[in-house]
Structure formats: structure tokens, C-alpha cells
């Protein structure tokens, strides 16, 4: 028996709603095959990969059809399987009787419906469309900042089932990679769907640098979760490499702060993540706060030492990149 007897297996999710029973999520199974005189029918089985629970349905092919329409293509529609959101299923299609090697398999993840959206950068708004799966249900949509949980970035908007428009506009104030669009049905224990339109726009994270004249501290606080390291570095030229200052590396978690920092334009911050390295030199920017007098910062393990300097002085050698083993500089002992 040719393995090409079974041609395609198509799976899709539909929502069935009735006035008395409410709405149920169903898996629709469709198949196409080539008729054969020995083929009596088809069987489709759906198995949950988590619980191993299996549901099967079969469709019979009349004997007269097999004989008259042999080698003709046939479309088969099975009754729907009842499923739930986020189920991971393994669906198998077999012949009746089962011919060795003639079988189609497919894995399927039951989704809660995809959110479709458009970004209007001119008006700083995200237009979201309620998934067609939930067209007969009330549906919530909101913007949130995804940290450990997705924190509110605006009030949820309720789109009722009888609304003339199933599209809503959600304004945003800043483009952030962790700014996400979240939607869920207005039903108990509804699964929430998230999509983050700006997840590739990470450059804005490295610009969140502040200088505090009172404490002479240079700080960076990311607006989104970042995994990596932050360090001070020294850049000798506009396009040259930025060499790390020893003992200045910090985990990129929460607020990273360096006290008593000299406001030299060559002093920069380096951000190292799995996407590569980014360097920001804030004191090269016109208008970035800087003191008329400042102090040099020596970053040591667990302590900081400093020497007075004026605005136009060149950093002492101990602030510039040195080979390993240079610490402490001569005449200066960490406190």
C-alpha cells in the first residue's frame, strides 16, 4: 500500500458557543486522501502530551464509493475534539484497516487566539484587534511592562461581544522592549495572550544614564529586565575601543551606581549582554550635567578612593586602563 494514500492533515481551533452551555474550545480535524478499494475508513486520534489522555474518532467510507471512485481524491471532516487552551496535542491519522507505514502525525499547540496589532508611531498608539476566536465573548486588552509579571502600563479596555468595532487604540508614552500587549477573555481563569511589539528596540535601554551633581554619582537604571554586566571604561578616541576599568564590573540588575565619578569625556559606561556590547559616553554629550570641579573615582574591591581634580585636568594614570596587577597605584592605598 502506497504511503501517499494519505495526503494532508489540517488542524485548526474553533470556538463553539450556545446560549445554555456557554462557549467551548474545539479542535477541527480535516484530511485529504486518495480512495482505494481496500480502504474502509479513517481514524483520527488526539493525545494530550501532558496527561496522555486520548480521544479517537473514525469515519467510514461506503463500499460502493470505494469501488466507483478508486484513485479519486476525497476530503474528510471529522467531528471536533473538545480541547482547552495551552494543551499540547499529538494528532495521528490512520487508515481502516491500518496499513503499515501509512500514517500522518502532527503536533499541535492549542492557542488562545493571536492578537493582531498595528503600531501608530506618529500618534504613539498601538491598535489591537480582538482574536476572531473570541468574537462572541467580552474581551480585555491592556498594555503592560513585562518583568517577573506583566505590570500595568495603562487601564484594561473591555471590548464587549456586541461592540460594533473589535479594534481598540492603546496609547503608550515610550518605546520599550518589555512593553507588551496583553489580551484575555472575560471569563474565569482565562489564559492571557501576550505580544511585545518593540522587543527588538533595545537601544533605548542604554540611554537611561543619570549624573547626580550633589553626590557626584553616575547611575543607570534600566526600564526593562536586562541580563548582563555594566562596567566603567576609558575611550581614548571617538572610534577607538573602550578599555574596562578594573573592579568596576557590576551585574545589570536594578540601579547600577558609581559614586564620586570624574566628569571626563573619555569616561564611559559599557553594557555587555548576550547580544554584544554597547558603549555610552555621557560626558561627551552637550548639555549632560557636569561639575566645574570633580573628583577621580578609583573602583576597588569593596571600596572607593578619590583625589581632587579640576574640570580640565587629565585623569591620573591609575584611572586609565592598566594591565592586571597594577592595583593599588603607588602612593594610594584603598581604604
Automatic annotation (TrEMBL):
Superkingdom field: Eukaryota
One of the Pfam families matching this protein, by short name: IL17_R_N
Tagged with keyword Signal: yes
A single GO molecular function term of this UniProt record: interleukin-17 receptor activity
Region (Disordered): 310-335
Keyword list, A-Z: Signal
Entries under InterPro entries matching the protein: IL-17_rcpt-like (IPR039465), IL-17_rcpt_C/E_N (IPR027841)
Ranges for domain Interleukin-17 receptor C/E N-terminal: 53-289
Biased composition (Low complexity): 321-335
The keyword Plastid is assigned to this record: no
Protein name: Interleukin 17 receptor E like
Organism for this UniProt entry: Otolemur garnettii (Small-eared galago)
